[in-house]
Structure prediction request, 164 residues.
Amino acid sequence: MFDDMKKKFDAIDVMAIVLMGKANKLLPMMNGFVLEGQETYQFPRLVAMFLHDDKLSADQPDEVLQQYVDRAIEQINKNRETNKDVYSIPPELLKAKYRGCGSGIVTIEKGTRKVLDFDYTDSKFRVLHEQNMSMTKSAGRKIREDETTITYRANFSSCQVCLF
Prediction:
């Protein structure tokens, strides 16, 4: 079973590489849709996965390929909605402050969605004698907002800030 999965993932990886070589053909099919961050890597992989699941190769007529491009864009939009409350912690903050999973507060820049600062406790606002489940359950609650930033209660997991 493991070998079958490995073969499938290897085939998808190879097809994604082939599709990356066809970027000039795929870009016009995206109708101005803009990929952000990791999506540039995920997009050809999604198209390849959908093609592979339907037992097709990357060499398809434009009309057929368009259907798979549309499916990949639809999936990316779903992923964006799911990930709207997840923020990556910048490497410099990871190195300086990240100690693993937990909860606390985070300050996020409004315009860029960049994590500016985070802390494992909300001691900047009031002292907590221990972190407890009520703090975790309140992730996403806005603590403070100004013109450029918003501070929330948050959970920290897998080098990310989660507002849920």
Observations:
- The longest strand covers residues 149-157.
- The first helix runs from residue 2 to 20.
- The CA atoms of residues 27 and 76 lie 15 Å apart.
